[in-house]
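Anyone? Bumping this.
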Amino acid sequence: MQEQDYILFEDYLSGKLDSEEKVAFENRLQKDLEFQEAFNTYKQASEFLENHIANEEKAEAFKSNLEAVSKKYFDKEASNRTSFKGINPWYYSIAAAAILVIGFFFTQQFSSPVYDNYANYGTISLTVRGTQSEILSKAETAFNTHNYEDAAMYFSELLKTDERNMELQLYKAVSLVELNNYAKADALFNHIIQTPSVYKNKAIWYLALSKLKQDDAVACISVLKTVPKDSEDYKQAQELLKKLK
Amino acid sequence: MLIHGYYIHSLIHKNHFKIVTLIMRSFFKFVKNKGFMSEKKNHEDQKYIEGLVANNTFIIQAIYDKFAPKVINYIKQNSGDAASAQDVIQETLITIYHQATEKNLQLTCPFDAYFFLICKRKWLNQLKKQGNKEVTINEEVLSKDDDAQELAFETSLFEQQHDLFKDMFEKLGQACKDLLKATFKIKSMEEVAESLGITYAYARKKKSLCIGKLTKLIQESPTYKNLKS
């Protein structure tokens, strides 16, 4: 293809041709296969550039988040394998652990459920490469070290500039539950549940846990009933429901 | 006579029914072929795709917990280790992310089958490149899901094309790269021209020529010829 062909492609794609030129262009597309092939590739290349360049930052954020999750998963996998390699002395501890688990299970079955048994928020990872913010990493550390007072403060700070961030809202609400600030926490959860965000199902489950912590079994049950089947906490929710009834 | 009449009546009735079902069947076939109805409904596992696009840590973690073990097992059984599994899984998820954000990927089969097929194909390709022929294909874990096969195939085509475009873009000269980056970030060609200190007409011309250069590089590469065939 000649230089003017590429210029023609661009003019056609950006709608700069008049109707006569457009007809001529489309005619040539039909007849000249080489021209057609080059045009298709040109169009694909434009689309690729548009996506690739416009989404570059988002894609980078996804990549670094993915790397963090992946590393955590594979580190855990490796440590699981090595800890079972030991031979004799380990059997005793495994047996002891099994007895403990069975005992725990029995007491669980016959006692009323407690918030602490379900409140497993794991560690969170908010920081992403490229958009490293000091408050964000402080919030993350505070939350992961169960320092909820600081965590709630940092989340509020962050939400001042990023008020629509559902992930931050969710963790802020969790921190508030831990601080027994239920009214605010429940209001936040209810807000997240109203939105179509991906954190919706988590918010329902955490709201139920908040009610559990408040010893409000009736409210807890009615929230648990709204946990949808495709939620990853559905099983746990059903289990808790059974115990509360 | 009465019995006879009833018999005939029921015969007509039966034929009627047959005709109606025939018409309905051909109607549905027609509708399906023309794609009037959304013939393939999205699978409920589409939530994983959406979670990836939204960069949702919970969902990414869930994908690892639920679907990674099978892939790790497979790779370990076929002359690989945990580290190679880690890379394969990561690359696969990045590809799915790109296809979902750029081409609006719609899942019509379980994520499990789709994801496993892509990882498997990727690992077998790597082994082939290393010249390692000791590959046992475990038929049992092979998915027989047609939709999954088709989707996984589409994704691998997408990946090859995406990689090709990315590699060729890197081969462009710095001036072209800068101009294209500015063009697709700023969108308005007037502003692009101003920011680069060139005229509007020249910026437009340069943009066509740079994408033209990229087009040429792509068309000349051997991968392009493979993808075409």
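Late reply, but here is one note on the structure posted above: The mean pLDDT of chain A is 85.
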